[in-house]
Every structure is written in structure tokens, then in C-alpha cells.
Amino acid sequence: MWLKYLLVALGIAVLIWLGSGVALFALFRSSYKVKDGRVYYHTAGIAENEVVGADAQSFEVVRQSDGNYGRDNKSVFFKERQLPGADPSSFQPLSFSSYTYWGKDKARVFNGADEIVGADPKSFQLIDTSYSRDVSSVFYHQQKVQVKNIANFRLIGDEYATDEEQVFYSGVAIHGARAKTFELLPTKDALGTIAYDGQKYYRDGVQVRKNGDTYEDLSQDPDQN
Asked: What does the pLDDT read at residue 18?
């Protein structure tokens, strides 16, 4: 008989534990909620802010947006920010990572709540969590990348990319970098990935000087002053 009561007690304990886990998951997950006729965005375990201008009666969370896009009958929202000019009836999320979200409607493309000006929604596609492209342009988040040869544009890695004529870091061309021979070295120093173009070394898109097994900022080199 005691075994029966023990199993029942264990079952109750498991249910309580699972229930607390669900509650903790809900607490630390970003999401929308409607309360007292208003819409709020709950930032995981941090704060709860009102989505100003959202219509509580027609509001819904956009599916497959990880709870970060919402819409009512007139507007689209990213977290608590309204997307300027977005059409709620045609809006759809494109993809997301742990920190980057994208969406589009019939006329515009957005990175989070910011419009990617000039991007064509029909041909727009993601390359990774930072770079994207349409039929005529490449973008780094919301900014257009000044690519010379879009057909040859490709990622190198660690925020580096090339169009075979230029090398880019975080969407900005690295002056003087040799695109044909640019590569990431297999080892990293304490401050990040090292790249090499056959003549010069770079870290985070900035030229550095090799000194034995370390790499130094050129601003610390007295010969450069």
C-alpha cells in the first residue's frame, strides 16, 4: 500500500515540477499579451511595455515570428515598435535568429522594425543573419552595400564578404584589401579572427601588424605616427 502512495506522491511532484517549468518558460520568453483593452510586449524576464497605437480587439501575433511580430487591422508591430507603412494583410516574417528578425509585405522589406529602403520584396532573400540581397542590390541589415559585382558577391565568414573586386566587413568596403587572395586564418588571437590578403593582416576589418604570434593595432605602432 505504501508503494501506491509513494507513486502518487512522485506523480504529483513531477506535475508540479513540469508546471513550474512551463511557468518559467513563459516568464522568460518574449511575447505579446492583451490586458485591460491594451496590448503589451513582454521582453523575456525584463520588462513589459505597452504597444502604443495597437488595437486590442483585432490584434494577433504573427505566426512563425517567434512572438516578436504582431499586427492589428491597420498596422504591423515589431515588439513594441510600429513598422512605418507596413501592410498587415500581406505582411509575413522571413526568418529570425536569436537576435535578428526580418519581414516583408507586398511593397516593403523590414529588418526588425526598420525598412530596408529600396529593397524589392518580390526578389528579396536572406543570405545570412546580417546580409541579404534582391535582384539588383546587397544589404547589410538596413544599409545598402556598395557592391561592384553583385553576381560574384559571396560571404567569406565572420562578417566578411567579397564581390571578387572588394572585401567588406560588416557591409563596409575595406580600403586596400586584396579581394582575390583574402582569406580567414584558421587560428584566432585573443581579440578575434585574423584575416590575411597575402600582404596585410586584418582583425574586425581593421589592418593589424603581425608581431610573432600576436597581432597589434597599428595605432600602437610608433612607426605609423
From this structure: 39
